[in-house]
Design brief:
The structure holds 2 protein chains of 2 kinds. Chain A is of the alpha+beta class. Chain A is built from 3 helices and 8 strands. Chain A has one domain (4-133): Roll (Thiol Ester Dehydrase, Chain A), CATH 3.10.129.10. In chain A, 25% of the residues lie in helices and 36% in strands. In chain A, the strands form 2 sheets. In chain A, strands 1-2-6-7-8-5 form a 6-stranded antiparallel sheet. In chain A, a hairpin with a 3-residue loop joins strand 6 (96-105) and strand 7. Chain B has a single domain, classed as Roll (Thiol Ester Dehydrase, Chain A). Classes of the chains: A alpha+beta, B alpha+beta.
C-alpha cells in the first residue's frame, strides 16, 4: 500500500513537464500545497519580471491533477476536460503556492477549484476552475 | 489577410521567440496579420505531460494558447498598444495530441474596444480540421498615456 506522500512524489517525478516547471508539493495531513519556485524561464513579461500567464495556468492545472491523484489514485493520469483561469494580479518573481479544493468528485467527473498566492495567502494572484475526467485505479477511462 | 507594418511584424517575432517562457518552450512564429497570430510549439522530451503516451503536456498548450491570444491582441492594437494583461482564459480540451507531436495555435482578436480585447483561439497537432483544444480569452489593454502634444 503506497502512502499519499509516495503517491504525490510519484506524480511529481513521473511527469517530465512538472520537472521543467520546477514544481514541488508538500503534504500536511490530507492538505496539499503545491509550490512553484521562481525561475527565469517562467517569465512572460521582462519589463515587470512577471510570470507568464500560461505558466500560472499550467501550475494551477498541475495542482488540480496532483490533488486528484491523491483523492483517486490511478495508474494513469486523469484527463482535463475544461479549465477557466482567472488572473487577479501579476505573478511576481517570487515563489508561488497553490491549493486545490475538490468541489465534487463523481464517478466519472470531478469539479476542482484552485487558488494561487505568493507572499500573502489572503491576496491570491490567480484562480482556476475546471472539470476533469477520472480514470479508474487500473488506468482505464470510466465506462460512459 | 491584411498585411501588418514591419514594426508589428518585428514585435510579433520578438513576442513569439524572445520572451523567456516562449524561448524556453521553443516557440516559432508561423504568421501574423491584423488581429490574428499563429505560433507553433515543437514536441520535446522534457515537455511531455504523460510519460505513458509521450504526449506533450497540457501546460505547454496553455502557454501556447495564452501567448498566441496575446499576439492576436497586440497585432490588433498595432503600434498603439503599450501592454496587455490576461483577465481570463478558458480552455476546452477536445482530445490529447498525438504522441511525440508538436502543437500549432492560431488566435483571432475579433473585438477590440478602448480597454478590452476578446480573443478566440484553436490548437491542433496535424490537421487544422481536427482540433485538440479551443480557447476563449479576455485581455485588458493598457494604452500609452497621451502626451500633451498628442492629446491636443
Amino acid at each position: 500500500m503506497t502512502t499519499p506522500a509516495q503517491q504525490l512524489e510519484t506524480f511529481l517525478q513521473r511527469v517530465p513537464y512538472v520537472r521543467f516547471l520546477g514544481m514541488r508539493a508538500e503534504l500536511a495531513g490530507d492538505e496539499m500545497t503545491a509550490i512553484l519556485p521562481f525561475a527565469p524561464h517562467l517569465v512572460g513579461n521582462t519589463f515587470i519580471q512577471a510570470l507568464h500567464g500560461g505558466v500560472i495556468g499550467a501550475f494551477l492545472e498541475a495542482t488540480a491533477l496532483a490533488q486528484l491523484s491523491l483523492a483517486q489514485p490511478s495508474s494513469r493520469l486523469h484527463k482535463t476536460i475544461d479549465i477557466t483561469i482567472e488572473y487577479l494580479r501579476p505573478g511576481r518573481a517570487l515563489t508561488s503556492y497553490a491549493r486545490a479544493d475538490l468541489r465534487k468528485v463523481g464517478r466519472r467527473i470531478a469539479n476542482v477549484h484552485v487558488e494561487a498566492w505568493q507572499d500573502d495567502r489572503s491576496q491570491p494572484f490567480a484562480a482556476l476552475r475546471g472539470h476533469f475526467l477520472l480514470r479508474s485505479a487500473d488506468g482505464r477511462s470510466p465506462q460512459p | 489577410m491584411t498585411e501588418v507594418p514591419d514594426i508589428v511584424r518585428q514585435m510579433a517575432e520578438h513576442m513569439a521567440t524572445t520572451v523567456p517562457q516562449a524561448a524556453s518552450l521553443g516557440f516559432r512564429l508561423v504568421s501574423v496579420s491584423v488581429g490574428r497570430g499563429s505560433i507553433e510549439a515543437p514536441w520535446r522530451e522534457d515537455l511531455v505531460g504523460d510519460p505513458d503516451t509521450q504526449v506533450i503536456a497540457g501546460g505547454v498548450v496553455i502557454s501556447l494558447l495564452d501567448h498566441t491570444c496575446g499576439l492576436a491582441m497586440a497585432s490588433a492594437a498595432g503600434t498603439e498598444a503599450f501592454s496587455t494583461a490576461t483577465l481570463d482564459l478558458r480552455i476546452d480540451y477536445m482530445r490529447a495530441a498525438a504522441p511525440r507531436a508538436g502543437v500549432t495555435a492560431e488566435a483571432h482578436c475579433y473585438k477590440l474596444t478602448r480597454t478590452i480585447g476578446f480573443v478566440r483561439a484553436e490548437a491542433w497537432d496535424a490537421e487544422r480540421s481536427d482540433l485538440i483544444a479551443t480557447a476563449q480569452a479576455a485581455f485588458v489593454l493598457n494604452r500609452p498615456r497621451p502626451t500633451p502634444a498628442t492629446a491636443a
